[in-house]
Write a structure and sequence with these properties.
By secondary structure, the protein is of the alpha/beta class. Helices cover 34% and strands 16% of the residues. Its cofactor is [4Fe-4S] cluster.
């Protein structure tokens, strides 16, 4: 099982799509180091194996190396979700020495200008590239994360080629979900036709490269890959609430980073109890979904994006996935926020 923890809302960039609405001027109410270690211990006890330290920019948290090392001592696999701009050679060494297994670094274009504009920081593309190279120099695995929108739709294959050239172990294209500041650019998200086309393009490209190429926030990739006879290590598309959840800087537990529903808070109740007993998680695990998702033959291996369902249904995380290629067949369909 996988869990992501937004350890801070502070960030040195101001990305257009940020689901946590992070930025340089943001005040962040965060767990103390002691509270954080207690949380990590409870997460490990609940059976989670992969701990994603994210943000904001997690490297702005002073105790991040200590927390990574502690997660490692609990026999979890600690990974980092970062914009990469702060990873100097010294930082890369400290991350490696702390036990970090992989650094996931955001790269949204092969063109510096387009990436910088999307990420809200001039020179950020070059700094991210340097961050990747610094990780490689110390033997720390890297993964490239790309937010897919209409603006970089035609670049997917080129970004994957760049990831290969940079020595990354994986490239994970994230399909835009309108949450946080992402709601302001909702019209740039892929509709059903392009959504499906992009999944096929990613799967096509995955057959040409040695690194892992995985669509994220596009759970239909699993049934599509199955129909195409492609072997993958993923058995289900959306695992929110089933084998995955998210923790915010202040300890609030959410279904996933893109679904703003507070389930509970780890300062008020042990995480193990929240994960095992909470009503919301039980509802998601029942897979008693509505609309086309509830009737779909691929429900058990897809699940539909619960965050996208929540946004477009105006608050129902059990609703159908609106951009599924099975649900609609119109590029002109526009959902109102």
């Amino acid at each position: 099982m996988i869990i992501s923890w937004n350890v801070t809302r502070r960030c040195n960039l101001y990305c257009k799509h940020c689901y946590r609405d992070s930025g340089p001027e943001v005040q962040s109410n965060e767990l103390t180091t002691e509270e954080a270690k207690k949380l990590l211990k409870e997460v490990a006890q609940a059976g989670f194996k992969i701990m994603i330290f994210s943000g904001g920019e997690p490297l702005l948290r002073d105790d991040i190396y200590e927390l990574i090392a502690y997660a490692k001592s609990l026999e979890m696999r600690p990974v980092l979700g970062t914009n990469g701009t702060l990873i100097t050679l010294e930082v890369a060494k400290k991350l490696k020495d702390s036990g970090l297994a992989r650094a996931g670094i955001s790269l949204d274009s092969t063109q510096a200008e387009l990436h910088d504009r999307f990420r809200g920081g001039e020179g950020s593309w070059l700094k991210s590239i340097e961050g990747i190279k610094n990780c490689q120099a110390v033997g720390l695995e890297t993964q490239i994360n790309t937010t897919i929108t209409k603006r970089n739709y035609n670049e997917l294959e080129e970004i994957t080629d760049l990831a290969v050239k940079l020595g990354a172990k994986a490239h994970h294209p994230f399909f835009l979900v309108p949450t946080g500041r992402g709601k302001e650019i909702e019209k740039e998200s892929l509709r059903a036709k392009r959504y499906e086309e992009m999944i096929h393009r990613i799967l096509d490209k995955s057959q040409e490269v040695e690194i892992e190429l995985k669509p994220t926030c596009a759970p239909q990739f699993v049934p599509i890959a199955k129909r195409r006879g492609l072997k993958m290590r993923f058995s289900r598309g959306c695992i929110a609430g089933v084998g995955y959840c998210c923790i915010l800087p202040d300890g609030d537990v959410h279904i996933c980073p893109y679904l703003p529903v507070k389930v509970a808070n780890v300062l008020e109740k042990p995480f193990t109890d929240i994960w095992e007993e909470n009503r919301v998680f039980k509802e998601l695990r029942s897979m008693d979904y509505k609309g086309n998702c509830g009737k779909c033959e691929d429900l058990d291996i897809c699940g539909g994006c619960r965050a996208r369902a929540y946004y477009y249904s105006k608050g129902d995380y059990l609703a159908e996935e609106p951009w599924c290629y099975k649900a609609i067949d119109s590029e002109d369909y526009t959902a109102k926020s």
